[in-house]
Design brief:
Number of strands: 26
Number of helices: 15
CATH architecture of the domain at 16-91 and 122-195 and 293-366: 3-Layer(bba) Sandwich
CATH class of the domain at 16-91 and 122-195 and 293-366: Alpha Beta
CATH superfamily of the domain at 16-91 and 122-195 and 293-366: FAD/NAD(P)-binding domain
Shape: globular
Structural class: alpha/beta
CATH topology of the domain at 16-91 and 122-195 and 293-366: FAD/NAD(P)-binding domain
Distance between the termini: 58 Å
Length: 557
């Protein structure tokens, strides 16, 4: 039990399959009601797809576990109706500080660029996110959330899968067209299917201590190398909700995990860090090792792997849950189109293509961070300490400091779904990039660009008084909206321009859209449902937009 959090108990409901109902085949079954599985289920249900979620537990995760949620993940959660509760409850931060022994040697700011809706990071205990997700999931009548339902076997088939599910009432059969596997790093489904996950396991151990205390630490990330209170090791401090502080102590590979979790071992470490005079309460303790591994492919017929079931990274850099939430953001719009018969099954191969690329980026950064934090040779340790000593005064050395390269979204520039540029552009909004946010106004009200774009294919066109859409373009806008895969049109007007007739128009009051998207009158971007750039042009053209949508959905062109 925690002093700051009351664990919910979710009721078990006898499944209809065990109440005399005929065996029903479902469009999608998700295994795992953690942050990633629930995100997938909510997005699918929100898009109108019936989905069943199976979880073998009846509550949320024990302990804080995942802590940091990055700006990109918050933007995804916004589209699921979850971003604001998380930000309201969590601790927002942008600044991180790195210390070597007694001195600060390096700091960074995740949001040097102003005018974004969300902070660079929030810290929030995982159990809160899961509770918010369960609450949101219950808003949907087409989402069947089944607790204490444990999958005991899975039989993949050419057009789906058959599951055997154990409950307090016995075992029943469940059939599905598509199985989304989100059952974590020790995935039973992966094991049942004899699928491998390959990579590197790091020989080191870390102690997690969740500590309740009233302290004046700023809302920042603090990382120490070789501090005076924990010599020759590293320590990480994060503030979470409810005055809970997450402290990670490096222990070394030889440490006995069970011994190190005992209060008589943990409390002296915390006292040495905080000082004997500070009162605190030890709330939760765990010891972990970590690994950097992934499956060779995330799609296996009609079985689709997401999150830790597909890839695992060390915790330095907050790349676990953030990456998993981006997996579902990439997968679900594609799966919806396939289920609705609007795109071929081959579109789902692009899920594996794009997210394997992203996983490899995360694995590379995570491995480099871990090697820097836990050097395994005297030479590596000497290099690491020299970098830290120089970083205080020399910018070149600061670039080498690596206490965890924090989660950023992957730029999918090599994706087969992108339409290559035919016009010259500057800036970062290349095809494959996640789109930047920008402040807007509409009808006198403040809005944010990402909220306006939403979760559909959208053509975003920059206009001014001289380039307001004419009658022919308005006809083209209407035709795009009537396509098999509809395309919304959103107009962005220069600050001084009058509002043109036609589709919804936002005003670029601060000029951020023009700056971030290198926009001039006529510039048009095609945005995917996961808010990655699919294509861009210097002039609007309905035919080229239709062709780019076809390419982004693996249609014949």
């Amino acid at each position: 039990m925690l002093s700051t959090y009351q664990y919910p108990k979710y009721d078990y409901q006898r499944p209809p399959e065990q109440s005399g109902a005929a065996v029903k085949r479902y469009p999608v079954v998700v295994v795992g009601a953690g942050p990633v599985g629930l995100a997938a289920a909510i997005e699918l249900a929100q898009s109108g797809t019936p989905v069943v979620v199976l979880d073998d537990d009846d509550t949320v995760s024990v302990g804080s576990r995942g802590v940091c949620y990055a700006k990109r993940a918050l933007e995804v959660l916004d589209r699921l109706g979850l971003g604001q509760p998380c930000v309201d409850k969590g601790v927002s931060w942008n600044v991180g500080r790195t210390f070597f022994r007694e001195q600060e040697v390096y700091n960074f700011n995740l949001r040097t660029d102003p005018d974004h809706k969300r902070p660079g990071m929030i810290n929030l205990q995982q159990y809160y996110l899961e509770e918010f997700e369960v609450r949101r999931a219950r808003d949907f009548t087409n989402l069947d959330l089944r607790f204490r339902n444990r999958v005991v076997s899975v039989t993949p088939e050419g057009d789906g899968a058959t599951l055997q599910v154990e409950t307090p009432d016995g075992i029943y059969t469940l059939q599905t067209d598509w199985l989304v596997v989100a059952d974590g790093a020790r995935s039973n489904i992966r094991r049942m299917m004899n699928l491998e996950i390959e990579g590197k396991v790091f020989q080191d151990r870390f102690l997690i201590a969740d500590v309740v205390m009233k302290a004046d630490f700023p809302h920042e990330r603090w990382f120490w190398f070789d501090p005076p209170f924990h010599r020759n090791q590293s320590v990480l401090l994060h503030r979470q909700a409810d005055n809970v502080y997450r402290i990670d102590f490096q222990l070394g590979w030889q440490a006995d995990p069970e011994e190190e979790k005992k209060p008589e071992k943990v409390i002296p470490r915390i006292q040495a860090m905080l000082g004997d005079e500070r009162e605190f309460e030890l709330e939760w303790v765990s010891v972990y090792t970590f690994q950097c591994r992934r499956m060779a492919a995330f799609t296996h017929g009609h079985v689709l792997f997401v999150g830790d079931a597909a890839h695992q990274v060390s915790p330095f850099g907050a790349r676990g849950a953030n990456s998993g939430i981006q997996d579902t953001d990439n997968l679900c719009w594609k799966l919806k189109l396939v289920i609705d018969g609007k795109a071929p099954v081959s579109l789902l191969e692009s899920y594996s293509e794009e997210r394997v690329f992203a996983a490899d980026e995360n694995l590379l950064n995570s491995t480099r961070s871990t090697d820097f934090i836990t050097p395994k040779s005297e030479t590596s340790l000497t290099f690491r300490n020299a970098v830290l000593s120089l970083a205080r005064q020399h910018p070149f050395a600061r670039a080498l400091v690596n206490s965890g390269r924090l989660s950023v979204p992957s730029i999918l520039s090599s994706s087969s779904l992108n339409t290559p540029d035919t016009d010259l552009f500057a800036g970062d909004m290349v095809p494959g990039a996640p789109m930047d946010d920008a402040p807007m106004r509409q009808g006198g009200q403040a809005r944010w660009l990402l909220d306006a774009v939403g979760s559909r294919f959208t053509a975003v066109m920059f206009v001014n008084a001289a380039t307001a859409p004419d009658a022919a373009q308005l006809t083209q806008f209407a035709a795009l909206a009537q396509q098999t895969i509809p395309v919304d049109v959103l107009l962005i007007s220069a600050q001084s321009a009058p509002e043109p007739a036609g589709p919804a128009t936002l005003h670029d009051t601060a000029g951020r859209f023009a700056q971030r998207f290198d926009a001039r009158p006529g510039t048009t971007y095609l945005i995917r449902p996961d808010q990655h750039v699919a294509a861009r042009w210097r002039a609007f053209g309905a035919l080229q937009i239709s062709a780019a949508v076809a390419r982004a959905t693996c249609q014949p062109r």
